[in-house]
């Protein structure tokens, strides 16, 4: 069975796709609290897929941390807590990618890491004056995001695209926190890129691990 068939036929992928589409519709129509409920459901569905598929528990943990991040971002006054939850999730992703040889890949092609770092520095510099109390945590979180993006690409291209989209999604959020320009409709841009980021990271990891173990044929 090919990777594509493995994904499309998987009931967890179907459930995730249904909830993702529902969330984007509810988000666009500003239907509360259902838009928030569907948002928080996204990452746990992927975590369940990982566990049922006998995937890495650290990836499931990363996705659950992202779910807590989504939860805390729903409430006023808990933005930093949500950021911390996402940071934990990213550290789990990074730990996994490093365990699969990502550092060797980065050493062979350091330009990707340098490019991501330059983009993150430019973004933080652009938003710095409007960050207020976030001036300390944002650079730390940005550095973690850069590591996720670089190590995921060193792992494989699918996961790498997911890492890049995660960085893109959070960049739009950061622009909003600093009262800078954001693309419209902002929430759709943020959530569409975030949803694809989660999916591509999960699919990239599950498919690569199955091929590594020789359980996919086609």
Give structural notes:
Its main location: membrane. InterPro entries: TMEM86B-like (IPR012506). Pfam families: YhhN. With 218 residues, the protein is mostly helical. It has one domain (3-212). It has ten helices and no strands. It has helices spanning 3-8, 11-28, 34-52, 57-73, 79-99, 102-108, 111-127, 137-155, 157-177, 186-212. Helix 3 runs parallel beside helix 10, helix 4 (57-73) packs antiparallel against helix 5 (79-99) and helix 6 (102-108) crosses helix 8. It is globular. The relative contact order is 0.13. The model has no long low-confidence stretch (mean pLDDT 93).
List keywords for this structure.
TMEM86B-like, globular, mainly alpha, 218 residues, transmembrane, Lysoplasmalogenase
Number of helices: 10
Count of spatially separate domains: 1
Number of strands: 0
Would you tell me the overall average pLDDT?
Answer: 93
The major β-sheet equals: none
Low-confidence stretches: none
- Computed CA radius of gyration, to the nearest angstrom: 17 Å
How big a fraction of the residues is strand?
under 5%
Span between termini? 5 Å
Instruction: Give the fraction of residues assigned to helices.
Output: over 70%
